[in-house]
């Protein structure tokens, strides 16, 4: 499972599970947000990553944080 | 737009004590050292400034090199030779008459920061160097007579101010030197304009991609290549080739942009084998894939609207900047514009290389090679500032390797075909 701001690139090299991160320079959170909102975002990314790890996939699959059911 | 570029060839630079002896005579540039230092020391951002001279072939190394600038002066027509930079007039350039001092460069040297970044945690790279003799005496820079501006910014200033202060000192020195050509007659005069040409000639655009460390360096104007004074991520800009020749782009190798080989070549071919439709400048290192596609697609659209059927693409960095290059090539090819990509091949041992993937439509790539210099003998003298990471005489130790100014030949200043290798 790869958490990245460049999901197309990572999918093109065959990583099975990809979670879309925030930005290249800060993938796992957003320092421009107030601390509690940043923490909530980081939690959401983490939950998406965990759910992705538990999902069977056939081809490289991008998981969007916050999307219902997670898989894009 | 009509630009007259008047060249004054200098074969020797010297300092004089008497300001009345300053000037340009018979190819000899005499500089009022005390007067220039007084001018540079007036900047309160600087703790200390000094001047030095190095010549091609001299057993000397420049260290802590930020930039090399060709001295220029706008003597007629609108604008400034460094437009929009550090409060200088912001006006479209590329018209009127500009003087250039050929054979001379002003080397901006400062401690700590490099021109590409310096905010804590980002790009704390080793000080750039240039030797005037030996394997690290890279043309064209080591073939110039270099007036070195050694500027120490105040340590209490933030990185942006420190970087700007060092560069500004070198720009002031460049203007001071170029002013010595006023009233003299040039050794050569080149006229640049793009008259309408036969409709049958294919339209070609030049698409340079310049990395912007805006999100890393925290500045809109102090780190990375500057376009009319801005280094920030901006949408694509359409420039007339004269703007490239007259100072619109600078900062990371200002001398290169002032003497851009690809712009010059396309200009020579204009009206002959092609119609040079201009330069579409992009920024790279956008923070997500959609943003990278955004700039590429706008560029391809602009190129198509300009009637281009061919494009030359270059870039100036590495890493994820490659995505903008790939997307630009893909978008241009999809719009019916044949592209050629001119690039370096990446360099440092252990680095897998610049090509993260190869778009199927990127079938025409020119490589200017790669350069990795480890065995460089220590010089007789060192001018400038070291970073403390390696001794000034040493360029490589284990994983730490200093970069030579201009080692990444993004524009084909050196090897341009396989015959040259």
Can you walk me through this structure?
The complex is a heterodimer of chains A (72) and B (421). Chain A has 72 residues and is an alpha/beta fold. Chain A is built from two helices and three strands; from the N terminus they run E-H-E-H-E. Chain A has helices at residues 7-12, 35-53, and strands spanning 2-4, 17-20, 61-63. The relative contact order of chain A is 0.22. The model of chain A has no long low-confidence stretch (mean pLDDT 92). Chain B is an alpha/beta fold. Chain B contains eight helices and 24 strands. In chain B, the strands form seven sheets. In chain B, strands 16-18-14-19-20-21 form a six-stranded mixed β-sheet, sandwiched between helices. In chain B, strands 8-9-1-13 form a four-stranded mixed β-sheet. A four-stranded mixed β-sheet of chain B has the order 5-12-10-7. In chain B, strand 19 (308-314), helix 8 and strand 20 form a beta-alpha-beta unit. In chain B, helix 7 (289-305) runs parallel beside helix 8. Residues 118-124 of chain B have low confidence and may be disordered. Classes of the chains: A alpha/beta (72), B alpha/beta (421). Chains A and B meet through helix 1 of A and loops of B.
Basic shape of chain A: flat
Helical content class of chain A = 25-40%
Q: Average pLDDT value of chain A? A: 92
Q: Helices and strands of chain B: which structural class?
A: alpha/beta
Low-confidence stretches of chain B: 118-124
Give the strand line-up of the largest sheet of chain A: 1-2-3
**Proportion of residues in helical segments of chain B:** 10-25%
Helix count of chain A equals 2
Q: Regarding quaternary structure, how should these chains be classified? A: heterodimer
Q: How much is the radius of gyration of chain B in Å?
A: 21 Å
Let me know the average pLDDT of chain B. Answer: 93
Please compute the radius of gyration of chain A using only Cα atoms: 12 Å
SSE order of chain A, one letter for each helix or strand: EHEHE
Class computed from helices, strands and strand pairing of chain A: alpha/beta
Characterize the largest beta sheet of chain B: strand count, sense, and whether it forms a barrel: 6 strands, mixed
Largest interface: A-B, 10 and 10 residues
Count of helical regions of chain B: 8
List how many beta strands of chain A DSSP finds.
Answer: 3
